[in-house]
Amino acid sequence: MYRVPTRYRFLLFVTFSPLSISLAVAAGDNPGTRNPTVVCQALKSIDTAAINRDLKSGVATVDVAIYLGETDGKPHGYVASPDELVASFVRAREIFAKAGVQLKLLSVRRAIVPPSWLAVQANDVTGFPAPPETNTYVGFRSAGWKLTKEATNAFEGIIERHAQNHRTIYLLYLKQVRMAYYDRTVKDRPRIKSIPTGGLSLPAYLFETRIPRRIRGVITLCRQGGKGGRTIAHELGHKLMNVSHEHRKIGPQFEVRGKGGLMIYGRGTEIPSGKTGRWHKERLHLSPFIYRTKEDGTRQWNADYREGGHYYDPLYGDKVIRFGVMTRPKRPKRRRPSNE
Q1: Helices 82-97, 228-241: crossing angle, 10 deg rounding
Q2: What is the mean pLDDT of each run of 10 residues along the chain (340 residues)?
Q3: What pTM was computed for the model?
Q4: Which residues contact 90 (CB under 8 A, 6 or more apart)?
Q5: Pick from 206, 194, 197, 168: nearest CA to 288
Q6: Residue 53 CA from chain centroid, whole number
């Protein structure tokens, strides 16, 4: 979902009374001026047909569109090095292909936007921190994460309208996207902080229907090159599997490092299956963003979320991990001395 410094330790929050952070302005840079029109144009140096040439009908498929956010006269870095972007996308494709899902690249487009749209505060913080022992996914539901008006305005302004907007994944490359959360570094003194993210998946288990349906497939990325392929795959995992940072015996949490799994920080790319694998592969194949192309060329889409897409959404049936509230063991009652 995102990458944060290891020194931060934070938890969930339960909705009660609203607190909010709003660090960016998504309107025109000069107050009172008319908001300029977003200009989108294809990055012609990337051949999407060549990238998609090995796609097969009947196989689970996800449509992905990429937007490179830039301002007039200041092109995105990938414009000069498109091979790096292609390599990252191809690497992500390879990771999901092992799990039986193919990624189709619809387009790579340059989006010329107001400078303020390239640096946004993604979410508002509401409520108070929940106790550490709360079921993580239950806590997420209570938290009620939602996009800021600035982020909503930017995302809706960049993504072009299409009949299948709500079924498409959009990778938006921006300069800085900040995430707000409750920092619990100081015990019993949680406070709101906002930090920059390398990638932010804006998954349904956190936002449910509080993201406009047309842009629910948005994933923001703020890094170029390096381990870009795994980063794309990791963020796609949050969106498509609809799980937090977890792997096998590692329960869901905001930040955890380890070996093997795509959904924790590290180098792993495994998408495990079955209960021991926390149903990751099975949940992936149930994603509403997946379709299969029939012989006549029509698409058969997966079923959509039934309750907005929380972790325990009925869409997933028994492909969930049930865990309750952790409690401290009760102290045994003292027995009175015997008269014998």
Answers
A1: 50
A2: 42 34 35 62 97 97 98 96 97 98 98 96 79 80 90 97 97 96 74 90 96 98 90 98 96 87 96 98 98 95 98 98 56 38
A3: 0.85
A4: 51, 229
A5: 168
A6: 27
* DSSP string of 158-176, one letter each residue: HSPP-TTGGG-EEEEE-SE
Collapse the DSSP code of 81 into the 3-class scheme (helix H, G, I; strand E, B; otherwise coil) and give the result.
Answer: coil
Contact indicator for 147, 123 with CB cutoff of 8 Å = yes
* Residue ranges of domains in the chain: 10-316
Q: Letter for the amino acid at 58? A: G
Burial per residue of 19-53, b for 16 or more beta-carbon CB atoms within 10 angstroms, e otherwise: eebeebbbbeeeeeeeeeebebeebeebebeebee
SS3 content of the chain, % helix, strand, coil (to 5): 25, 25, 50
DSSP structural state of residue 255: -
Q: For residue 93, what is the enclosing H or E element?
A: helix 82-97
* 265 conformational bin, left if phi > 0, alpha if psi -120 to 50, beta if neither: beta
